[in-house]
Amino acid sequence: MANTPPTWRFAEAIETCVKRIRVVDGYLTDIGQMVVREVAQQDEADLPDTYATVVLSEIMPANQPAVVRTHVDAQVSVVVMLRHGHAPDAQYRMHCAIADVQQCIRNAQRDFPQSFQFPRFVSARLLPPVEGMAWAGVEVRFAAHVPLHVITH
After folding, report:
1. CB-CB contact of 81 with 52 (8 Å)
2. What is the reported pTM?
3. What is the DSSP letter of 90?
4. What is the pLDDT of residue 150?
């Protein structure tokens, strides 16, 4: 893409970080084995036991005086879905997912464009399984001030 909206670049950088989450690399889960950007119905047979979706959650005016005219405060959610949401260890697995997502962002300054604020943790919440569903999940939300203008590659 020649011109990329800054909010897309922010979500893209978060996605890059989440894709690194693998047990072999010292994490508690393998969330990184499948990370998608589009919220669409997935064929359940094709899904691993844990996967993540990275989505833009909210855009608000910048809240720091120095950037109020040049940036917006964008929030991106990492929604991690876990199969067998009713299993005895489901709560533990959800806590592991939250810890992994937070950890993957902590040391990833290099993944974010120069004019972007480094992401700050906003919140995490459990998404309990709905009756009849085999999935539970967590939503971990990050925010950063990102430029208003389109970034040209």
Report:
1. yes
2. 0.89
3. H
4. 64
